[in-house]
Hints:
This protein is mainly alpha-helical. The protein is about 45% helix and about 5% strand. The chain contains six helices and three strands, in the order ααβααββαα. A three-stranded mixed beta sheet has the order 1-3-2, with helices on one face.
Amino acid sequence: MSEEKLRQHAHITAVTKCYPGKAAHGKGDRKPNPQEVENCAPYLEEALLLASPTVVVPIGALAIERILGPKPFSEVIGKEFLKEDLPGGPAWVIPIPHPSGASPWPYLPGNREKLEKAFRLIKKRLQAGNLYSRFLS
């Protein structure tokens, strides 16, 4: 699936709407604080309400926490969750880690398999909703 096709057929948004700036240590971006996440929550909720997705893929710890609550990656990556109370209606939630490269998580023993399972689950849910073919044509 190409990035171009993904962007044509998927809604991509962030937990916060403003760039938080560089991290104090100079490597990467600063993680938004809880107040910044809470301030932007209505925008994320409105996006979910308008898009009414059947599959939601939270990418990274902030997004996973916002959708599923605070949970370690080891408990959520490679699994799917039917979330009944999302704005816009129920949806399958399939979390993945952020691909920034800052986290060693994908390279730790057993985690690559969990990530590959998550991608298979995403494909399965998109196929079930007759959505997957849109990404390939």
